[in-house]
Amino acid sequence: MKRLFIHSVLTLMLALILGLWNQWYTVIIAAAFSSYIVRLKGGWVFFAPFLVIGIDWAIEAYLIGAANDFTLATKIATLLLLGGSSTALILFTAALGGLFAGAGSLVGRSLRALRR
Amino acid sequence: MKFFKLLLSLAFCGGLFYVGHFGFGSLPPLGKFINPYSGIWQNETTESEGEQLSLDGLSAEVTIHYDAQLIPHVFAENDLDLYRAQGYLTAKHRLWQMEFQTYAAAGRLSEIVGAAAIDYDRGQRRKGMVFGAENALDEMLKDPVLATRIEAYSAGVNAYISQLEPKDYPVEYKLLNYAPEPWQPLKSALLLMYMTDMLAGGDADLENSNFISLFGKETFELLFPEFLADQDPVIPRERDWSDFEAVEVPEVPAKTSAIATVNQALEQPDPDNGSNNWAVSAEKSVSGNPLLANDPHLGLNLPSIWYVMQLATPEHNVMGATLPGALGVIIGFNDHIAWGVTNATRDVKDWYKITFSDDTKSAYLYGEETRPVSQVIEAIKVKNAPTVYDTVRYTHYGPITYDERFKGDGKEHFAMKWIGHEPNSNQNTFLKLNRAQHYEDYREAISTYTAPAQNFVFASKDNDIALWIQGKIANKWEQQGKFVLDGSDPAHEWQGFIPQPHNPHVKNPERGFVSSANQHPTDEAYPYYVYDANYEPYRNRVINDYFRSKDQFSVDDLKALQSNNYNLKAAEALPQMIALLEDTGYTPQGSAESYLNTVKDWNYLNDEQSIGASVWEAWWTSFYALSWDEFEASEVPLHWPDSYQTVQMLTDHADHAFFDVLDTAAKEDAAGVVQLAFEQAVKNLDAHLATGKSLDWASYKATYVGHLLQALPAFSRFDLPVGGNGNVVNAMKKNHGPSWRMIVELSDETKALGAYPGGQSGNPGSKHYDDLLDTWAAGKYYELLYMKSASEELSEIQFSSTLTPKNSL
Known about the structure:
The structure holds two protein chains of two kinds.
Chain A: H1 2-19, H2 26-37, H3 44-66, H4 71-79, H5 86-115
Chain B: H1 2-22, H2 30-34, E1 52-55, E2 62-66, E3 72-75, H3 79-106, H4 109-113, H5 118-126, H6 129-141, H7 144-162, H8 171-176, H9 185-200, H10 205-215, H11 217-223, E4 274-280, E5 291-299, E6 301-302, E7 307-312, E8 317-322, E9 331-333, E10 337-343, E11 349-353, E12 363-366, E13 369-372, E14 374-382, E15 385-394, E16 400-402, E17 414-418, H12 426-435, H13 439-446, E18 454-460, E19 465-470, E20 485-486, E21 505-507, E22 513-516, H14 539-548, H15 555-562, H16 568-583, H17 591-601, H18 612-627, H19 629-633, H20 643-652, H21 670-690, H22 697-701, E23 703-707, E24 717-720, E25 736-738, E26 741-745, E27 751-755, H23 773-777, E28 782-783, E29 799-805
Parallel strand pairs in B: 1-29, 3-7, 6-23, 11-20
Antiparallel strand pairs in B: 2-3, 2-29, 4-5, 4-22, 5-25, 5-26, 7-8, 8-9, 9-10, 10-18, 11-17, 12-13, 14-15, 16-17, 18-19, 19-21, 23-24, 26-27, 27-28
């Protein structure tokens, strides 16, 4: 549990710091690095960063969207065939962020395993 | 095993990274696109606060006040600062659009959208779009004042672009995964070429020649008369031309055209690209102030083609519609005058059949001599694919557009001679109009203007109204360039231009108004040869009859006229069609009976709720298509007869062979086609009803304003509740219509109304993306805030920005 907490905080901190570089794939690096440093068991390797980054992206997307009545979100949700639902777009955003982070995390774990 | 796991995880992660960063198929790069820190969520914002910014190259402070419509009111200390600020602000609100349109003009869309655009790009290159823009730019740069202004504008655009980070790029860049490139003065010239192509890029020469080969000259004269009966030309018929001295028209040579057949031709611009404008004299105006109105009819797009601005220095103060990419105001008003434009179509593009001296195709015959061609290798970069090369040969006429490599059969070659390629400084005309105070200023401003020829309407506080039909127009012999010309015959060359003072014009006519609606410029008495394949036959008569209907007009009357839905075409055709249908002994059953009764009771108004208008349109559309089915079936491109002549045929030549429908065994006359068309219309109307939609005209027509990227549904607006139609003063078609409505009253303080189908912001995430659209659709207007000075404190101002010189901070 403690590891899970440390891993999650580390992932989030790294994502936010590397995020200043404004490259979307820094979430992959953040999650990979965390899993290289902190060992997680089983499915948590994927799901912990999936949730951390997913929630981070969802909150950020929600805050930006809510400040502008989801004017663009509704349109992008139409464009991406999500039925014009801004909620669906937020979930989609979160899922993608989570997927990228989770995939990065798996690479970090494999590298860590190789080190031993 | 561990190693295998690493490989597996790397492959998984790498695959996701690839899709996230580069996209897949038609998908945008999803990670880049969707992440909330630099993707599209960053575009989820509405312009609501000003900025304090230091801008390189400014000489003094520039103040910008924004009103509730996000119209910037720009106050600069001098002209160069003004145009620098205009470039900066236009880019700030319309960057993607202004760049995209210049890519389209230059034939570079494949760079952005990929191989699907190669054919379009080749067409643009073969039309010599860049050639024309370069010629214009060279001419503009010869004028040192204009040159510095264009450079200032360009620097202003670049000042905006250079401060952008990828996260700030407009949504469309993120969607298509590319980045803005630096602006250059050439792009302003390209934007003007884009307009020239849209408005003066059409012709029917090749199509006319094809028609003659298929059906003969006599039928051609019948279907395509140069002057239509009962037209009300732009210049009133009362105008006699005896004041023109030394009119010289070239003699018709012995041979007047080349025999040619063209298999395929480039797509023509929409023939309904046109407009209405008029000015009412002080005496004819209820308030005693001259009035002026204009509504240009163009494709309805988002971001809108127009961007409204007020541009002021201590020396001048102008407001109106600007074109993103061009300097100054294009249609607008100032403290002294107002002006507007409608397209003055003329045949300014001719085709010359080229005879090469030998198979190397490096020289062509011209009189007794041969002349070399020059070759331009066009490199068309293609997204995700290798560059495509296309060699275009140039003659002294212009580019050989059609040859063995492009839309040709390899046997015939056609070179284009187009006024769009002439060196010009048309940009200057608008900058001079922005500053004009009196009739003479206006006359001087437009005198050098070349293309696209426009009906420049004018009104001033000196109580002058005027209209000049201005363009650089070749002085042609009778029918020159109506058909394909022989490039080897020097007599087929353009023999010079109509002297500018002899362009048709009228000032303060007795009738108290001037107007234009893309109709024929003059009557037959005008001493020069006038031809175009697309003169509009209906709006002019409705507008001029309106102004003859009473003594005086108010601003409200002008609003009503801009929204006038009277369908003169239907009024002239429908009674005959109903009579013919009844003559056939046709007995309508079921829904057909109710449609027929509805259209019989119809008042000829294309109002939003009208069902009669829908029935008429369905019937007319089928009638027109069935009447001219020979054109549809033709293997070579043809120009179709216009509505007016179609009705004339119905009236006077009901037995003409063209009325026989190819697909039926029976031999139809006009009445037969009327009946077949009605039956087809009934099917179409029933099918529309079956989709659950109503038969109200607005629903049947389903007007939409489409995003510039092929009307991407997410960024477009559909099913607008609007009446009107093509050939109606309120020229609102399915995706085409009044792109800017302006009415100006030249009272002591200039008052103006305006509306357009879009919004000031090009960002689909902004509330100002389409916030003006509903007002426009309702036929309503905004009172334009015309500020006198930067220091005025007005409640209408929402927020303000200040641009300061960089070295002063």
